[in-house]
Amino acid sequence: MSARTNKPHEVVEQALALSRADGCVVIADEHSTANLRWAGNALTTNGVTRGRTLTVIATVDGKEGTASGVVSRSAVTAEELEPLVRAAEAAARGAGPAEDAQPLVSGVPESPDFTDAPAETSSAVFADFAPALGEAFARARAGDRELYGFANHELVSTYLGTSTGLRLRHDQPTGTLELNAKSPDRTRSAWAGRSTRDFKDVDPGALDAELAVRLGWAERRVDLPAGRYETLLPPTAVADLLIYQLWSASGRDAAEGRTVFSKPGGGTRVGERLSELPLTLRSDPNEPGLECPPFLIAHSSGGDQSVFDNGLPAHATEWISRGVLRHLTTTRHSAALTGLPVAPALGNLILDGGNRSLEEMVADTERGLLLTCLWYIREVDPATLLLTGLTRDGVYLVENGEVTGQVNNFRFNESPVDLLGRATEAGRTEKTLPREWSDWFTRAAMPALRIPDFNMSSVSQGV
Q1: Boundary-marking domain end, from 192, 214, 236
Q2: What strand order describes the sheet that includes 167-182?
């Protein structure tokens, strides 16, 4: 009999009962996905999947400290459950003391739905979306443009149990929509993306209309050299940059002098003003529409996450408060090392901006560039968090408050920390899909930012 046929909470209990270690954490992740793909104004594929991943974390106490061992496997049968637990215990016994060792979390109330069946998605999630997409195909054909893209919905029910008595459960829906519109000769391309929990708040017809406007802008081509330009970064581009900043905001690395958040001479830059604009960058597990796990789920240790912190309650955190750096990411262990408060990275990111739309910001631009999105972002220098990457699917010239054409793509070199300091305007915050990091981080809400001197370091020949 397959363990997949057992209820997830039962598998967690069985694994904990089999444990002979000093401590044990078991995480059962029930995955289900549904997807649609299309090309040339026609659906090409669709499908659904189901699966389970089981992670066992064993901790073993020794004279020199506590060691941990982690083993994860998919499709574990009933016969394979005990060998999986023993493998985690063997890994712990063969490891040295874990630097991040802490007492396993205890005292967190049990999730009331811990014993309920896992939530699942299906093709029904596209019941309203798919007909609307078909209508968008028809309008695109009539408008002499082709639509390409995909829609994906994933629902993960996570069951977490520990030898200290924790029994926690969280259901996480994640939906993404990416839509490309292309001219028949493929010389013009425009992109739009959305993040959603259930596909009830995305309108493919509205996105197609937006892309049609952008393809129209691209009928006039203007070649520009590399240089610094006043640039309007849309929410998706801001999200990609600030997500990388969050991933680079390790309190321990900053305290040890290795990052842009290190203070010259020692310590961190916590308390320092990073922006003259009253920008607040925050995470909140209860943010409406961007909800994420209200407790820590760590399948491995590394960076600023620790398997010993599994089940630790997650709280709303302001990373930057009205322009001032307030928190860096820490585990319980790294917080003790640095003297910083415990502040684990959470599953969403919000930048509170102003109240004007991107269209209003364009109307107030004498001459500048309007980007669509960024991609192929890579780190150049961790000491300044200098990033490089490319623009894609439309860079537009704005003159006297109107878009007058499309320009060539560029490679950029910028630090998101520097950009926050140089930004002169923030637009209205809206939910957005980060294009570069959408496989790893989808729950974001950002404003557009006006940068007076964005560094387009070289010309790119990409479309």
Answers
A1: 214
A2: 65-74, 42-62, 23-39, 146-162, 167-182, 189-196
Calculated CA dihedral for residues 284, 290, 296, 302, nearest 10 degrees: -100
Q: Residue 335: pLDDT band by 50, 70, 90 thresholds? A: very high
Concatenate the DSSP letters of all residues of 279-313 into one string.
-EEEE-TT-TT----SB---SS-BTTB-GGGTTPB
User: 249-267 burial, b for 16+ CB within 10 Å, e for fewer?
Assistant: bbbbbbbeeebbbbeeeee
Q: Which residue has the tokens 């066992």?
A: 56
Q: How far apart, in whole angstroms, are the C-alpha atoms of residue 196 and residue 290?
A: 8
Residue 390 burial (CB count, 10 A): 18
Segment 85-109 mean pLDDT? 97
Kindly give the interhelix angle for 204-217 and 129-142, rounded to the nearest 10 degrees: 30
The answer to whether residues 76 and 195 belong to one domain is yes
* Share of residues in the chain with pLDDT > 90 (%): 96
Q: Residue 304 — very low, low, confident or very high, per pLDDT cuts 50/70/90? A: confident
Give strand pairing partners of 450.
232, 425
Q: What is the Cα–Cα distance from 179 to 318, expressed in whole angstroms?
A: 32
In contact, 166 and 106? CB cutoff 8 Å: yes
Q: Are residues 258 and 365 in the same domain?
A: yes
Instruction: State how far the Cα of 425 lies from the Cα of 436, in Å rounded to an integer.
Output: 24
The tokens for 144 are: 């002499």
Domain end residue (candidates: 214, 248, 281): 214
Q: Tokens 């020794």 identify what position?
A: 62
Residue 200 lies in domain: 3-214
Share of the chain above pLDDT 70, in %: 98
**How many structural domains compose the chain?**
2
Are 13 and 101 in the same domain? yes
The structure tokens listed for 60 are 């073993």
192 and 247, same domain (yes or no): no
Question: What's the rounded Cα separation, in Å, for the pair 37 and 58?
Answer: 41
Tell me if residue 410 falls in helix, strand or coil: strand
The tens digit of pLDDT for each residue in 306-331 reads 999 999 999 999 999 999 999 999 99
Q: Extract the tokens encoding 312.
A: 């630790």
Task: State which amino acid sits at residue 218.
Answer: A
Q: How many other β-carbons are positioned within 10 Å of the β-carbon of residue 187?
A: 11
Do 172 and 33 belong together in one domain? yes
Amino acid at 148: Y
User: What's this model's pTM, rounded to 2 decimal places?
Assistant: 0.96
